[in-house]
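User: Could you check the structure of this?
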Amino acid sequence: MQELKKIRPIYKIAFLVLVLFALAITLPGCAATRGAVARGWAGGVIVGDIIYTGSMEGNLVSINTTDWRMLQSIPLETQEPTGGFLSCAQASSSVAMYGSPVIADDLVCVGGYNTGKVYAFSRVEMREEPRWVYPRQDSVGGNIIGGIVYHQDKLYFGTTNNRIFCLDAADGYKEWEIELPDKVWSTPAILNDTLYIGCFDKKLYALDTADGSIKWEFETEGAIVSTPVADGNTVYFSSFDRYLYALNTAIGSLKWKYQAENWFWATPVIYGNMIYAPCLDGKIYVIKANNGQKMEEYDFENPISSSPVMVDNVLIVATQADKKGEIRNSILSYVNVEDGTRDELFTFGKDENVFAPLVAAKGKVYIQTNLNELHEIDAKTGAKRQPIELSE
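Assistant: Sure, the predicted structure tokens are below.
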């Protein structure tokens, strides 16, 4: 078993990091007045030449990536009180989106954090009136923090009131609902007929997608909020105990685990027989998928909470802005995984930060920052367009 490494001083209080991470997003929208705005950090999803994402003001936005033009900006409005850990306590006129939108055939669906609802819109027409909303009255009883997953005509997601839901994607009617022992922040992963999801009770659960019954569960030493990655006969995930785990998908037995200096918050990338695991200690760990052996590590110095993306054989990584005696801006970098060469592609402005997951298509990377702007940057050259302001 790998020895526990000494934790860098800046990360000694892990819980404080989580609180500051959340407050970095929510505080800009929290005013001591009514009408305070809930903030989110949704990533994007791309279909053809269109990217769908959520603005920090609670709008579902579609952008044509060919001519770099905003097509629609649909507000998901509510007059309900927000509350919750990741939102302002006052009444809000917008819906915070923390999970990225998901495409379900001709629909684009997104979860509302503070409303506890799922919204489905026609992605072709993108009218302001949703095709359906679940639940039609009230809410699911908790907040939706993780993303929604679409699989074989069904939508799956978890909530902070310990529930996992399965909805019919066509009409939004509930197929099943189960209760776990604690909160669910994680986005599910699905492989074949099994759903994998983490829970605050320190366990990863494997559920039958047909009825939500538990196939197996695996306990760690920390809460699990990251998104699992299921590949072949292995599911990979991380826990707040600072381990990256690999389990057998059939029975949930441990294959290996690897410990880092801090949490693996962002989703790892699998490329070939390697796992590229981003960590809040500022490093990307390159680990053999079959045995957990570390082959390399790339130190980017600042925390990595945004999930990276692979473009051909180039891994694109965004770091958070940080303060260690001097201010380092949020930086977009690349690593060529074939030869190990790396460099910076772009440095964001002083007040910009990147928490949302990266998304890529046709050699371009799309990054949403905390200034409510969407950037497009060429993954090889660093060439960029003028960012699009997602505000109304």
